[in-house]
Amino acid sequence: MINSKKIIVVLPAYNASKTLIDTYNEIPYDIVDDVILVDDNSTDETITIANQIGIKHIIKHESNLGYGGNQKSCYNKAFELGADIVIMLHPDYQYTPKLIHSMSYLIANDVYPVVIGSRILGKGALKGGMPLYKYFANRYLTFFQNILMNQKLSEYHTGYRAYSRKVLTSIDYNKNSNDFIFDNQFLAQIFYKGFEIAEITCPTKYFDNASSINFPRSLKYGVGVIKISFQYFFSKNKIYQSELFK
């Protein structure tokens, strides 16, 4: 805990058997109270390894719900366990758990209600091996969203995030997509509710065992991002009210 606030790390897992141990061992247990792993019907030994290393709270989906569906189970379980701060960390070891301290303290000390680890601040993305097409797509989509949403984030597409309980209880994330666009919908909803988001520089690693969506799914995601940006703009300016922001 920090300032009597319970901190829970959630691991949305899919075929993470080769990287789970490294991720788990770097979690700072001096402040983290619980770890939740949600396995989205993996075809490898993720569940076996999770049990072997002693993860107490393990949920297995009987069918693959998708990245967003996985996160919904993560946050719902975190609420059940009384979390005050929830850190969403990918168990593919692409993001370092060593930033959990910094992210948690910003929330626990009421500086910001949401903190994301940005790969774009500094040179973390390209240095870590992000493909060039993804880097430039990230920059373009972020610029587009900042214009339509009147914000100044360095990126909207990181998978490393920390949320206060107040934020998670203020937004009906269960109505969001079960696909990768879930993350982007969530950030748009956070801004729509008037919450501020802090960013910290985050190194990242792209390697064979790190999860990554292919080009067709990246294209689908990009179209979804543009759609959400317009939905936000129209709703904020009372032109048309999207269900996403009700």
From TrEMBL:
Domain of life per record: Bacteria
Pfam families linked to this entry: Glycos_transf_2
Domain Glycosyltransferase 2-like: 9-168
Record InterPro entries: Glyco_trans_2-like (IPR001173), Glycosyltransferase_2 (IPR050256), Nucleotide-diphossugar_trans (IPR029044)
CDD domains cross-referenced by the UniProt entry: DPM_DPG-synthase_like
Stated name of the protein: Glycosyltransferase family 2 protein
Organism in which the protein naturally occurs: Flavobacterium aureirubrum
